[in-house]
Write a structure and sequence with these properties.
The complex is a heterodimer of chains A (112) and B (111). Chain A has 112 residues and is mainly beta. Helix content of chain A is 0%, strand content 51%. Chain A has strands spanning 4-7, 10-13, 19-25, 31-38, 42-51, 54-57, 65-66, 76-78, 87-94, 102-103, 107-111. In chain A, the strands form 2 sheets. In chain A, strands 2, 4, 5, 6, 9, 10 and 11 form a 7-stranded mixed beta sheet that branches. The N and C termini of chain A lie far apart (36 Å). The mean pLDDT of chain A is 94. Chain B has 111 residues and is an all-beta fold. Helix content of chain B is 0%, strand content 52%. Chain B contains no helices and 11 strands. In chain B, strands 2, 4, 5, 9, 10 and 11 form a 6-stranded mixed beta sheet that branches. Chain B has a 5-stranded antiparallel beta sheet with strand order 1-3-8-7-6, with no helix packed on it. The mean pLDDT of chain B is 92. Classes of the chains: A mainly beta (112), B mainly beta (111). The A-B interface holds A 31, 35, 40-45, 48, 50, 58, 88, 90, 94, 96, 99-101, 103-106, 108 and B 8, 32, 34, 41-46, 49, 87, 91, 96-99, 101-104.
């Protein structure tokens, strides 16, 4: 089954404790993105990657890192999480040249 | 001004009603337009692309007005299962592949 998977689905952590949210897709998509979704603000892009070893900042990259060492994986790293990073996070992928994005099920992160 | 603007609603309608949502975008060079559907606490999923000539998929009709820079979504004969948030999505002109999402319009269909 074609899908985007994210782990963990739910995470409660404390300020400053490094964490990684994994994202994996099995559709051989070139393009992958991370978004955060907050009430009243909609989906905002954090980082995106157009292919292996090619990443770029989205609209709200501060406090986040990403890597794309393999085509299928695009982890999101929070080196020192803060409470303002409490949010619902979505990973998405798509094929280059097509705009339909496939989203993962989301990761609900709470930073206390 | 936001790049993509939608009325957040909620729109509360009875079953069987026809409801329309509009969305405006700020960059006249945008080329691709979409409606996504998002159920509560779930991931967004593509509902339909929006073509210049307008397009229909069952009870759903999407229209694009380039002159006024807005797109619309019309839902006929609303079902309870149509209750969701509808996201207007526009590609960012000049940036390959970047999509800008509106904050969404919430629809509640009541029995």
């Amino acid at each position: 089954e074609a899908q985007v998977t994210q782990n963990p689905r739910y995470l409660i952590t404390v300020t400053g404790k490094k964490l990684t949210v994994t994202c994996s897709q099995n559709m051989n998509h070139e393009y992958m993105s991370w978004y955060r979704q907050d009430p009243g603000l909609g989906l905002r892009q954090i980082y995106y990657s157009m292919n292996v070893e090619v990443t770029d900042k989205g609209d709200v990259p501060e406090g986040y890192k990403v890597s794309r060492k393999e085509k299928r994986n695009f982890p999101l790293i929070l080196e020192s999480p803060s409470p303002n990073q409490t949010s619902l996070y979505f990973c998405a992928s798509r094929s280059s040249g097509l705009y339909e994005q496939y989203f993962g099920p989301g990761t609900r992160l709470t930073v206390t | 001004r936001k790049e993509v603007e939608q009325d957040p609603g909620p729109f509360n309608v009875p079953e069987g009603a026809t409801v329309a949502f509009n969305c405006t975008y700020s960059n006249s060079a945008s080329q691709s337009f979409f409606w996504y559907r998002q159920d509560c606490r779930k991931e967004p999923k593509l509902l339909m692309s929006v073509y210049s000539s307008g397009n229909e998929d069952g009870r759903f009709t999407a229209q694009l007005n380039r002159a006024s820079q807005y797109i619309s979504l019309l839902i006929r004969d609303s079902k309870l299962s149509d209750s969701a948030t509808y996201l207007c999505v526009v590609n960012k002109a000049g940036n390959t592949g970047k999509l800008i999402f509106g904050q969404g319009t919430t629809l509640q269909v009541k029995p």
